[in-house]
Amino acid sequence: MPETIAEFPISPVVKKFADATRIPANTNAGSNAKIADRDTPLIQNCWYILDWAGDVEHALKNRMILGHDLVYFRTQSGAVTALQNRCAHRCFPLHRSVLHDNDTIQCNYHGLTYNSEGSCVKIPSAPNKDPSSIKIQHYPVVERSPFLWVWPGDPDKADADQIPDYDWVNDDAWGYGDGYYHLDGNYLAIHENLMDITHFQFLHGAVLGTPNFAEAKIDVTEDGNTVDNYRINLGEPLPGLHSEATGLGKTVVNRQAHSAFVTPGFHEAVTLMNDPAGTQGGRNDYHAHILHLITPESQYTTHYWWIFARDFNPTVKKWDKFYSDSTRAVFTEDADAIDWMEQQWAKEDRAGFREANVLADKGAVAMRRIVQRMADAEQAGG
User: Fold this and answer.
1) What distance separates the 2 farthest-apart alpha carbons in the chain?
2) Do strands 285-296 and 253-263 pair parallel, antiparallel, or not at all (unpaired)?
3) CA distances from 33 to 45, 57, 189, 356 (A)
């Protein structure tokens, strides 16, 4: 049986996390110096989820993204466009206006009409005037199933190659569940919640906790702007979330949990459950894979999409429902915790107050340092 993280078997699913450079052992988990907090400016030059691609048709939709009020729709050609949600004339909300068959939006206040790129093409009260000098902001949008991605920052810096890879989401070898939440809390609180999975034993004890989970060895790797926080639990039965669906029941197994901050809008988690004895027909490895798509709505509210996938019993529909329901229950507990913490901040936001960090926060502190560097660079015009 492996006794250290280095000896734990690395499966192909989690191998991409294994080659990162380790953070030095003296990482200062007890200092809040130069790390992002709930008031750090949002990172604008980044791709974020706008919506599920399948939920956008030739009809006006509205969503606030990083403080940008957007109106968006699918054009007749099939592409999705996102525009500033206000008429340039008198700020009337365009999502409460009229979308025509030719992909133009006619403001319901004075009739100014905009094309799908945001240029005004008609001013009813000035039919002889060239309207093209009147424009509203157009935002880059990329569709990659099952999501729509939007770039709220400088459009000249929008590079679709920066969207993280998640091709496995469309692989029939996995069984899936998904969902969406609107959270009252700063987006970094969600990333931190995902980085420090010590809370599994306490906040989610009935579903994800095992007796020794919080005491497991934690290791952190850092590669550029990516941080992977991972731990192993040796010689314990699986928690309730996985014990029945894998068929392992009370079998003693080893569990390796990875949680990786990839971008401010993208967080990826992988759990490897290893049965050394191969009690289920000789199978040793079972994987759960979760995407967390985190889009700030404002400084203190957040959109949160998720996809949960498994490579065991992937075609059994009852397990699709089980994992969807169970994951929603877990994320509801997370959402409540983040909401309660946000309420507490609002009541006790005292000058000079600093949260205490402990060893389990090593990955979260590394993530916050990265976000602070990104924010500093962006504010400096980088």
Assistant:
1) 81
2) unpaired
3) 24, 46, 17, 12
> Is-above-0.70 flag for pTM?
yes
Query: Long-range contact list for 17-20, CB < 8 A, 24+ apart?
Result: 17/221, 17/228, 17/230, 17/258, 17/260, 17/270, 19/223, 20/221, 20/222, 20/223, 20/226, 20/228
Sheet with 61-65: strands ordered across: 61-65, 68-74, 80-84, 138-139
Q: What is the pLDDT along the chain (382 residues), one digit of tens a residue?
A: 344 444 444 444 445 444 433 333 334 444 445 899 999 999 999 999 999 999 999 999 999 999 999 999 999 999 999 999 999 999 999 999 999 999 999 999 999 999 999 999 999 999 999 999 999 999 999 999 999 999 999 999 999 999 999 988 988 899 998 999 999 999 999 999 998 888 888 888 778 877 777 777 888 999 899 999 888 888 888 888 899 999 999 999 998 889 999 999 999 999 999 999 999 999 999 999 999 999 999 999 999 999 999 999 999 999 999 988 888 888 899 999 999 998 888 887 677 777 888 888 899 999 999 999 999 999 998 6
Three-point CA angle 263, 64, 110, nearest 5°? 145
Is 57 within 8 Å of 76 (Cβ atoms)?
Answer: no
Is CATH 3.90.380.10 the classification given to domain 5-41+174-379?
yes
Nearest-angstrom CA–CA distance, 305 and 295? 8
Contact 273, 242 (CB under 8 A): yes
> In whole angstroms, what is the distance from residue 273 CA to residue 238 CA?
8
Q: Do 323 and 310 contact (CB within 8 A), yes or no?
A: yes
Write the CA distances from 95 to 73, 92, 107, 320, integer angstroms. 10, 9, 9, 35
- All CATH 2.102.10.10 domain ranges of the chain, comma separated, are 48-160
Look up the CATH architecture of domain 48-160.
Answer: 3-layer Sandwich (2.102)
Q: What is the DSSP letter of 96?
A: G
CATH 3.90.380.10 residue ranges in the chain?
A: 5-41+174-379
Q: How far apart (Å, rounded) are the C-alpha atoms in residues 285 and 281?
A: 12
